[in-house]
Design goal:
337 residues, alpha/beta, four-stranded parallel beta sheet, two-stranded parallel sheet, 11 helices
């Protein structure tokens, strides 16, 4: 049975009373009189970390896509669908990041709270999407990788605070306090990024990665960004594109390119080989986190740690100045090559 059919059957089951078995009443089964946490499902780690920081100890988060998982291509399992249907709310990125899940999220949203956090972002600041990306007939959308600009991603914090407060108004003050503290930390991280990227020699501010996930990153911090693939990892890189990037590396005398934690390195390796064939040595400057964060339980497995790693790794590999420990002195160097 196809996933969408499973999802629809489960939704239909809920509508006739075959749900999670939680007592009716306040979210999380609070109708029993017990103080229970909101049960929240998120699609990707970047969204999950925002939700966790705002919700604090008043929520319990289940995340669908873990470290190293590409959300562009991920097909939810039966267990994922079960988690979604038993939750009090679902938060996802939107802008077709979760391309394979979009239809199911839309259907579930007719029956329970489902929120795209990027709805909070000023549409005038969105960068254009990839025309070659399959969108299953939906409307045109912007580039979804907005978390790579910390100042833009922080706009999502207030939407999450607002929606959690609607679900659990008795904890609204705590959600507001958590949101304010987290926004302050994000502002400090953004300022750190501006400082360290500015130390890279101007001619070396060229960031070439596996796919076009870093356009917001480049615009925010002053880098010329090129992806070997398009915005979606479903697109293919052609020989012409690789040759053009080799010529650019040689022309600007840039000697580092970057792989991504959730994307195959084969195209980056082809780029390195192409440069070598023309007598120009290019190395892997490190692995950047694009569509997924680091391992759970590590600093890089948080949104701040993910961006700290990307900013610090990029600055150091391209000739800039940044402490190996990064923004908070917590980087582990787990993805060095």
């Amino acid at each position: 049975m196809k996933f969408c059919q499973i999802g629809l059957l489960m939704v239909a089951g809920l509508s006739i009373g075959c749900g999670s078995g939680k007592p009716t009443g306040a979210p999380g089964g609070a109708g029993t009189g017990a103080v229970e946490k909101l049960q929240v499902v998120v699609t990707v780690g970047m969204v999950g970390d925002l939700v966790r920081n705002v919700g604090g100890d008043r929520i319990e988060v289940t995340q669908i896509c873990g470290a190293g998982v590409d959300p562009h291509l991920y097909m939810p399992t039966r267990d994922d669908v079960q988690d979604i249907m038993e939750s009090d709310a679902v938060f996802y990125c939107g802008l077709m990041l979760e391309g394979k899940m979009a239809d199911t999220l839309k259907k579930v949203g007719r029956r329970k709270p489902v929120f795209a956090v990027t709805d909070a972002i000023d549409r005038s600041r969105l960068m254009s999407g990839d025309a070659s990306q399959p969108t299953d007939g939906s409307e045109a959308h912007g580039d979804p990788h907005v978390w790579n600009d910390v100042s833009m991603w922080s706009q999502c914090v207030d939407l999450i605070r607002e929606k959690l407060t609607e679900l659990a108004p008795e904890h609204g003050d705590q959600f507001a306090e958590n949101a304010a503290a987290y926004r302050t930390e994000l502002e400090q991280l953004h300022d750190y990024g501006l400082r360290v990227i500015a130390t890279i020699p101007e001619e070396s501010r060229l960031l070439i990665t596996s796919h076009d996930a870093f356009n917001y990153f480049g615009r925010a911090y002053g880098l010329d960004v090129r992806g070997i693939q398009g915005i979606s990892t479903e697109s293919e890189a052609g020989l012409q594109q690789i040759n053009a990037l080799v010529d650019l590396l040689i022309r600007r005398n840039v000697k580092a390119v970057f792989v991504e934690s959730s994307v195959s390195p084969k195209n980056v390796e082809a780029l390195i080989e192409g440069a070598a064939s023309q007598g120009h040595t290019v190395t892997k400057g490190g692995t950047l986190f694009s569509d997924a964060m680091g391992r759970e339980g590590t600093y890089e497995g948080t949104y701040i740690g993910m961006l700290d790693h990307n900013l610090t790794t990029t600055a150091r590999a391209l000739g800039g100045q940044a402490d190996p420990g990064g923004f908070q002195g917590k980087l582990s160097g787990q993805t060095k090559h």
